[in-house]
Amino acid sequence: MKDIQVITGCMFAGKTTELLNRLKATNKQYLLVKPRVDTRDQLNNISTHDGVFEKGIRVNKLSEIFTQIKDIKVVGIDEAQFFSKSIIVDIEYLASKQITIIVAGLDKDYLNRSFGYMKEISSIASSTTVLTARCNHCGRPASYSHRKNHLNNTQVLIGNSSEYEALCSTCYFK
Fold this sequence. Notes:
By secondary structure, the chain is an alpha/beta fold. It contains four helices and twelve strands.
């Protein structure tokens, strides 16, 4: 039986924290992976916005880990929205090897559009957890990632609280 868990939500909702907590709770040999395009962390560290970090590896495609999964029982994937479409096939391959997959990623971009292949990953998942943040303006539960700087209109702008904030629906649509 495949076990593909998805953790999603807006920026600052605690997706990476939840991913790390789940990995540690498994008490099994795991591998933590993130896309090479995400350069916010030093070396191969994967960190939360709260400064907690874990050793992981950066790859361009998830298939790059296939030679390293001999004793691996769980694979954690952070920032999954940045991977190419091949992530779907790669996740299914890992699941076919009885490896538990825990995926964390943004479900929507700053314009509230589907981000990357998260929607497709959620469609093959055995469970999906949607987390919320706290609205930066009013403190209510937030589910929108708002880009503060509109000078760059590309979907992918790697950043943190200097570029983004979490907003509730009322504040987002103001």
